[in-house]
Every structure is written in structure tokens, then in C-alpha cells.
Amino acid sequence: CSGLIKIRLKFLNDTEEVAVVRPEDTVGRLKSKYFPGQENQMKFIYRGQLLQDQGRTLRSLHITDNCVIHCHRSHSATTAATVLPDPATAAPAAGGLPLGAGNLLVPAVMVVLGVVWYFHINYRQLFTAPATVSLIGVTVLFSFLAFGMYGQ
């Protein structure tokens, strides 16, 4: 018996990689061996539990031969630092908000709601009571979201 076990590392896109490790290896060692330089980005999940303690051994977590550990690569830790421009050298935005799809979504939904309300007022006979209640509910919900985002 060589003391080695095989662990299946399963990713979100349903691909798998087989890791050959010792039961006394730690979670941190597994990350550094199979994901060098990306240890802080990798999240391991075993039996629904996030493996956060990097010093725990695989044996203490009851990980045995042919177990599956789900792997998730988080881009928030390092890419946020590398993608954001330097505030000292970046040109200030004209309106204070960068122009992007997320900032155009709220006005687009407002226009759509306005058009639907226009049709509701002018073509009342086409709207049933549940449709009217739903339209009111969506309008109220969206109003809370819009004022929550821009009312700060």
C-alpha cells in the first residue's frame, strides 16, 4: 500500500481532474499543488461544506479514495485589484457613473414600464385583473430598486 489516494476535482463546467494525494496532506497543500499561484482564488467544497481551514488534513475531513471535491475559481480576490484603474491616473467620469450595460438597464426598464402603462391606459380592455395587479407589483418593486440604487 503506497498510502496515496485519488480525489476527483470537479469544476463548474462538469470537467474533472484526478488529484493523487496523501491523506495527511492539507487543504492548502492540495490547492498549492494543483493550482499554483491561484490558491487564494480557489474554493473547495466537500459534502456541501466550504473547506476554509487550509491547515486541515484530508483525513480529518474524512476524504477518502475516489471522493469528489467541487472546485470554484473566484475571480474577485485578484482580478479586482488588477482590473481597476489607478484612481490617480484615471480621468474622472463626466456624470460620476461609468457608462455600461448595468447603468443603462434601469432607464431601459423604466421606458418599457412606461410603454406598458401607456398601453394599459389606452387599451384597458386587453388587460385582465391579474395582469393589472402584476403590472402594479412590478412597478412598485422596480421603483423600490431604482430609488434604492440612485437615492443614495
UniProtKB/TrEMBL annotation:
The entry's localization annotation reads:
Membrane
Keywords tagged on the record: Membrane, Transmembrane, Transmembrane helix
Does this UniProt record's set of keywords contain Membrane?
Answer: yes
Bilayer-crossing residues are 104-121, 127-150
Listed under GO biological process in this entry are:
ERAD pathway
Taxonomy, superkingdom: Eukaryota
Q: Which Pfam families match?
A: ubiquitin
The record's annotation in PROSITE patterns points to: UBIQUITIN_2
- Topology of the protein relative to the lipid bilayer: Multi-pass membrane protein
Task: Give the residues annotated as coiled coil.
Answer: none
One annotated Gene Ontology cellular component of this protein: membrane
Which parts of the sequence belong to the Ubiquitin-like domain? 5-70
Q: Keyword Membrane, does the record have it?
A: yes
Q: Which PANTHER family match?
A: PROTEIN C7ORF21, TRANSMEMBRANE AND UBIQUITIN-LIKE DOMAIN-CONTAINING PROTEIN 2
Name of the featured protein: TMUB2 protein
Task: Tell me the lineage of the source organism.
Answer: Eukaryota, Metazoa, Chordata, Craniata, Vertebrata
